[in-house]
Structures are given as structure tokens and as C-alpha cells.
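Write out this protein's structure.
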Amino acid sequence: MSSPDNTTVQAAGCVLWRRSPIDGELEICLVHRPKYDDWSHPKGKLKRGEDALAGALREVAEETGCTATPGTRLSTVRYLANGRPKQVRYWAAEATAGAFTPNTEVDRILWLPPTAARNRLTQSRDRTLVDDLLATLNLA
């Protein structure tokens, strides 16, 4: 039996998108986490027994204040976090309602066009998810 420190951390998130209220162009939501001073897609650890998609939508709501309609399953991202393997399953999700309120976990969000979002993301592993979304929406 492996030690608990080697078990893979299960997490889920969404590449959250909307049509700009100004010009109708695609915008992607990024969240800023002051603890890490990074920009990423909304995501988080799953609760015990929680379905990955349900967890992804819960994290979107907690981090952005948005309710979202899930779409296509995107890539799964794997990396080491604090020395432990982490696996994050992602979905495309369209923001349908809600408003952002800053909190201790996420102090800012940005809605950016895909190229700007890709450039703003802190981790290169998150950039491929922008490409996944564009392919899913037939915009690649």
C-alpha cells in the first residue's frame, strides 16, 4: 500500500468562456490567486466521493461567482504540486449567469480574448487548454 503522500490529488476545473457583451467575440475567464500570484483556469480539489464534473462546476461557482453550462470534456493535466502528483480534469463551460466577488482564494478575474488569455496564463500546461477549447468550439 502506498503512503498517503504519494496518492494522486484529484482535482477538476473548467475553461470558462462567454461571448463578450460588447462585440460578441469569445472571451475566456482567468482567475488570479493571490496565494500563488498566478493566473489560471478555475479549478480545485475534489471533495471525497465528489463527481469530477460536479466538482469542476462547484469550483467555477466558488472562484468566479458564475454558473456555467458544461460542454465537451477537455484534456486532463498532470503535474507535481508540493511534491505530490496532481491530476486535473477539465471541461469547456459556458458562463450563463453570476457576478464575481473577490475572496481570499481569488482576488481578481479577467475575461480575455483567447490569445490574451493564453499569454496571461502563468503555467504553460494551462495554455494547451485554450487550444482545446477553440478546437471544441470549432474556432481553431
